[in-house]
């Protein structure tokens, strides 16, 4: 059974940083691109970033470039999202997603990020 | 960026009756490899989104056959042949043909 179990998240002050994690199981993690999607009150569902199978290629939404870093550790079957310079607009639920052939077929349970002073 | 526009935004339906949701993209979703990377997702209350349909009309594993997708280019439709109580939720279209991947604003399906 494919599972994506997320951790991290929480409350952070504006300008702060946070690291999200996602541990995959039930499939060959190193064989798939992976994706982060967020759901915010302001923009609804928003694609955030992609990473290729070996981590050598990364793609970001414009608002995340320079502030967020997607990474992976295939030995640990884990995906990460390092977020810096967080603003209230970044608050929401972040999902780790598997996107074979660009279809978002399995989603993590989501992790809540709150940006507040 | 490609804008995805869904109609209606709310759809009250009677159990057992059909429902239809439309999605229009601001540009053609035919990608350079000839594939149209257009998907439909369902989000039940309190849950993550779930893939229903990929590449316009392909039902994902485990999705009931009362769900069907159609369309081409810039106009797409999700149809539920006979709505059941478990279909209540918000439905999203999304495109992955061009970066950044973008989503529609969602259509809320509720029972009358």
Break the fold down into its secondary structure elements and pairings:
The complex is a heterodimer of chains A (117) and B (112).
Chain A: E1 3-8, E2 10-12, E3 18-25, E4 34-40, E5 44-51, E6 58-60, E7 68-73, E8 78-83, E9 92-98, E10 106-107, E11 111-115
Parallel strand pairs in A: 2-11
Antiparallel strand pairs in A: 1-3, 3-8, 4-5, 4-9, 5-6, 7-8, 9-10, 9-11
Chain B: E1 4-7, E2 10-13, E3 19-25, E4 38-43, E5 50-54, E6 58-59, E7 67-72, E8 75-80, E9 89-95, E10 102-103, E11 107-111
Parallel strand pairs in B: 2-11
Antiparallel strand pairs in B: 1-3, 3-8, 4-5, 4-9, 5-6, 7-8, 9-10, 9-11
Structural features, described:
The complex is a heterodimer of chains A (117) and B (112). In chain A, strands 2, 4, 5, 6, 9, 10 and 11 form a seven-stranded mixed β-sheet that branches. Chain A has a four-stranded antiparallel β-sheet with strand order 1-3-8-7, with no helix packed on it. Chain A contains no helices and eleven strands. The termini of chain A are far apart. In chain A, 0% of the residues lie in helices and 52% in strands. The mean pLDDT of chain A is 97. Chain A has 117 residues and is an all-beta fold. Chain B is mainly beta and 112 residues long. Chain B has no helices and eleven strands. Chain B has strands at residues 4-7, 10-13, 19-25, 38-43, 50-54, 58-59, 67-72, 75-80, 89-95, 102-103, 107-111. In chain B, the strands form two sheets. In chain B, strands 2, 4, 5, 6, 9, 10 and 11 form a seven-stranded mixed β-sheet that branches. In chain B, a hairpin with a 2-residue loop joins β7 and β8 (75-80). Chain B is globular, with a radius of gyration of 13 Å. The interface between A and B is medium-sized, with 19 and 21 residues.
């Amino acid at each position: 059974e494919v599972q994506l179990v997320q951790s991290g998240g929480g409350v952070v002050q504006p300008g702060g940083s946070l690291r999200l994690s996602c541990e995959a199981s039930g499939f060959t993690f190193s064989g798939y691109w992976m994706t982060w999607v967020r759901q915010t009150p302001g923009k609804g569902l928003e694609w955030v970033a992609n990473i290729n199978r070996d981590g050598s290629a990364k793609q970001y939404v414009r608002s995340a470039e320079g502030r967020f870093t997607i990474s992976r550790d295939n030995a640990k079957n884990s995906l990460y999202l390092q977020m810096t310079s967080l603003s209230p607009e970044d608050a929401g639920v972040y999902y780790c997603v598997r996107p074979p052939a660009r279809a978002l077929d399995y989603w993590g349970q989501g992790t809540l990020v709150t940006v507040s002073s | 960026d490609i804008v995805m526009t869904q109609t209606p935004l709310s759809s009250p339906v009677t159990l057992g009756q059909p429902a239809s949701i439309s999605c229009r993209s601001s540009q053609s979703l035919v990608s350079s490899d000839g594939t149209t990377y257009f998907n439909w997702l369902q989000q039940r209350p309190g849950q993550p989104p779930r893939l229903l349909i990929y590449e316009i009309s392909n039902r994902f594993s485990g999705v009931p056959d009362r769900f069907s997708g159609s369309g081409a280019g810039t106009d797409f439709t999700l149809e539920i042949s006979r709505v059941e109580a478990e279909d209540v939720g918000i439905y999203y279209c999304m495109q992955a043909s061009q970066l950044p991947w973008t989503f529609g604003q969602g259509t809320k399906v509720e029972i009358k």
